[in-house]
Design a protein that fits this description.
The structure is a homodimer.
Chain A lengths: L17 E5 L4 E3 L7 E7 L2 E6 L5 E7 L4 E2 L9 E4 L3 E7 L14 H19 L4 H13 L7 E3 L4 H8 L3 H13 L3 E3 L4 E4 L2 H8 L13 H4 L7
Helix pairs in contact in A: 2-5, 3-4
The structure holds a DNA duplex.
Chain lengths: 228, 228
DNA sequence: CGTCTCCTTGAAAGCGTTCAATTACAGTGG
DNA sequence: CCACTGTAATTGAACGCTTTCAAGGAGACG
């Protein structure tokens, strides 16, 4: 018995844009497709993937409810795929360039969200070892709004590996190490309980909270510029 | 004898915003400074850096003429430093949120540029080995407008290493390997001549040109959605 | 000519990958 | 209900790339 995902056309829906669902594993768009639309996740999880000549895969991001993806042009440089069953809303990329007053979502906001997602991915790669990166990844998921102590990992080990530039073996081994160190516990492969967030942070090696230290006056006073 | 960088206030300048110069090595803003401004590079090269608990450094991007950086808020999560002597233009982050008709640069454009830079960095990390990443890095620099066969590497090996998540030793060794393989030649440590762009691309392992393959109709026809 | 910074190179150690085998689990059909 | 099948996860062992430790060299500057 398969539940059906109807194709709606923004009928009686608070979220602007056309809405439809995809089943787990479906491709939403392919690498190279013309980027006529961008997408917002209503429910479920999406991954964006880039495929290399040698066949290996880079997952450039995971996108949860309220995240946006596919904001680029003129062509999608990555594919987008459904990690779980998902419901998405799409909007034309250029709809807001026209200055349409009826548009309810400012393109600014969309771009800012996409930029924030990109920065998050870059941040992950700043961590040197497998344990560093994986800890940072788990913290990132745990800090998502709506996540309790029980964290879901709906993506496979292989997905995580391709996101962190590791092999699935290293991911699996490192998770096992975390369990042995009592940093986390597993209730099945997909369900993680975080036992020590501080411990994970220590492994990740980033403080995350040392903002607001400077006085922001560098432009006026900083550097070697002593003139005038 | 030190050349002086005066502090201008957008006087007789085609580029809107306040302009000033920084000397090589200067800090433009610190990690944690309130992000009241974003910046555009007029000339020279800037790097953005994040510092970790263990003291190691991640260079999240290099920014050349016409690139923008520091587009974020409410605080800068990275520091910005001058790789070479630079001249910058800065603008208030919120100047364009007010809907000022006189603003000549749309915030859209700025965000889109920042997003493009971020994607470029993410792309680099998709490459698995040191040779892969370094080749992709060199190609990226060589493809910048204005770059001829003689490519300048004004940043140090250490900068490159912290950008690619490698050590400076591995960077140096890999460059030496490229020279031995006749992929590149060095006219001094900072000046690279690319002898075989195709060879470099092969090492990098990405085609870069396989866009436009799909038909973009996934939304309508794709996946397992067979309903209605 | 000494000092400093940056780059290069060698050798050994460590971590992640690769190759390989085993286990667990969901779905399917007998 | 149970065997069969395919996918996902875990774990072991050996290999290889990157790091680490260490030394030496090249160029700028005073």
């Amino acid at each position: 018995m398969i539940t059906r995902f109807p194709r709606w056309s923004n009928e009686s829906c608070v979220i602007p844009g056309e809405v439809r669902g995809f089943r787990k594993g479906d491709t939403i768009y392919h690498q190279g497709d013309p980027a006529r639309y961008w997408y917002e996740v209503i429910s479920g999880i999406v991954r964006t993937c880039r495929f290399f000549d040698d066949g290996h895969r880079q997952l450039t991001g995971f996108f949860y409810s309220e995240d946006v993806f596919g904001v680029e042009g003129p062509a999608h440089r990555e594919a987008a795929e459904a990690v779980t069953d998902v419901i998405l809303s799409r909007q034309a990329q250029d709809a807001l360039d026209l200055g349409d007053k009826g548009a309810e979502i400012a393109r600014d906001k969309v771009l800012a969200k996409a930029l924030e997602s990109a920065r998050q991915s870059i941040f992950l790669f700043g961590h040197r070892t497998a344990a560093n990166r994986l800890a940072a990844f788990l913290i990132g998921i745990a800090e998502r709004p709506g996540a309790s102590a029980g964290v879901q990992l709906p993506m496979t080990r292989s997905d995580i590996a391709d996101h962190l530039n590791l092999t699935l073996h290293t991911v699996s081994r490192t998770i096992s190490e975390f369990v042995r160190s009592d940093l986390i516990a597993l209730d099945g492969p997909q369900k993680v309980r975080i036992l020590s967030l501080d411990g994970l942070r220590a492994v990740a090696g980033d403080a995350e909270s040392d903002y607001g230290l400077g006085d922001g006056t560098t432009w006026e006073t900083g550097g070697l510029c002593k003139s005038a």
